[in-house]
Amino acid sequence: MMEATKQNTNRIFWVISVLIIVLFFVLNVFTPLIADDYSMSLGKHSASDIIISAYNMYFGWGGSSIAFFLESFCLILGKNAFNISNTIVYCLFVLLMQFHICGNLKKINPIIFCFINVFLWFLIPAWGQNFLWLVGSCAYLWTSTTILFFLVPLRKKCNNINYNLNIPFSILYLFSGILAGWSNPNSSAAVLFLLIAYFFVKIFKKEKLSLFEILGAIGFLSGFVLLIAAPGNYARAEVIRQITGEEKRAGIQLLVLLITRFISITSRFIHNHGLLILFISVFLGVELVHHQKKKVDPFVYFYALTGLACAYSMVLSPTFPDRSYLMVFVFLGITLGNILKYIGWTVPQIVKRNWLLLSFFSLIIISLSVVKAGRNTIGIYLRWQNRIEYIMTEKEKGNLDIVVKAPIPATDRHTALYGLEDIAEERDGWTNTAIAEYYGIKSIKGLYNDDPWPSLWKPESF
Predict the structure, then answer these.
(1) Which residues contact 381 (CB under 8 A, 6 or more apart)?
(2) For 5-25, b where at least 16 C-beta lie within 10 A, e where not — what string?
(3) Fewer CB within 10 A of the terminal residue: the chain, N end or C end?
């Protein structure tokens, strides 16, 4: 009887898992090119174009070359190919989170897969930018997947001290380290902290280092140096300082500036429920270690500290956009998942007695959130499609200076446009010039008023 109930539960969660994957794909399909997608598309038609552009970006704007290559490659392939690829990468990303929680993936657990998706859906501050926006997804989701993949052998080594990679795979792990280190500034900085903690424990325990550990660390450090030392980082930082006004604070002592940023990061960490997740993990961890007398794998502590390092490494950056919080919550989520695993996923009796009622209300809450996000996503897509048709119609008429209604309302953080810049009122805005060049017109500007979009479902003519 118990076994049959368990099998039925697993079947239900398998169905839900498939529905989640389908929903993610549909949201991708109804997400148009926006913001940086247009500027990144310009002048790239071949591999040589990408290489030349990457070189210029490295010296003129930033060192995240891996993300830049991924963005450019996906834009050349086209949005349809990206929708499929992004769905596959997202599934791999969630499965890697599950691996880091369970320690293996011999058998995929659909229940954990679903709960990870719910965790990400409700806690990632810029879900749409991280997972649906083409440029943002390549820069965050894809590079985060690379990082989690790089950490797999280290996680296995913690579980089994005899685990090892043969020489060919150890050499490949070197290149995996380069990709992970060269991925994303705050995520890579956090993983650097994790590696330092990892090797400190290894040295403290006087454990022999494997070839793959040494090569992986060398690769990661090499990639991280390439990421941080890029001349473009300093050029971009100067531009951001001018925009934010920090150049006017040049006389303020560096310590005061760092403290101000530290306080700001802490405030946003609390606001985004990071402290709550950390508190729950610590509370359950104390119960686990001091009361249940269970031994916890050191990697659990590594994940928690890495999540904090991922957030507070941004104290060195003049800006900290919400999309940079992705790996903060990924590491905190893995920490919480590990602790729940050690506790044994124990379900309180009050929950068991009322599981049907709780499941019903949980389903209602999740469904309402998904419907709200889907409505806004489709509304944005219809607006963009209507806008594109209007641009092309006006272009055929010979009108190359176009005015469109703006902004398109992005009210849900699960949409890609949420928090990003739409077409500006000024024709020389960076989004405007990129969109104008993309569609082969002279200029474009946004016509702003108090209520440009009375309905998200019925796009009016432009």
Answers:
(1) 30, 31, 32
(2) eeeeeeeebeebbeebbeebb
(3) N
Least confident of 92-96, 248-252, 330-334: 248-252
Q: Token match 């300093």: residue?
A: 234
Neighbours of 429 (CB within 10 A): 18
Alpha helical stretches, state H, 245-354: 254-271, 274-286, 298-312, 326-343, 349-353
pLDDT band at 454 (very low <50, low <70, confident <90, very high): very low
pLDDT 10s digits, 349-371: 555 566 667 777 888 888 899 99
- Determine whether 438 is exposed, middle or buried from the number of CB atoms within 10 Å of its CB (0-12, 13-18, 19+): middle
Residues 401 and 443 sit within 8 Å (Cβ to Cβ): yes
Most distant CA atoms of the chain, gap in Å: 77
Tell me the chain's radius of gyration from C-alpha atoms: 24
Contact status, residue 136 vs residue 130, Cβ threshold 8 Å = yes
Give percent of the chain with pLDDT exceeding 70: 88
What stretches of 314-424 show up as alpha helix (H) in DSSP? 326-343, 349-353, 355-396
- CA 145/CA 448 separation, integer angstroms: 39
Report the C-alpha gap between 120 and 80 in whole angstroms: 24
246-272 pLDDT, tens per residue?
544 544 567 777 888 888 888 888 888
Contact 439, 392 (CB under 8 A): yes
460 DSSP assignment: P
Which DSSP letter does residue 208 get?
P
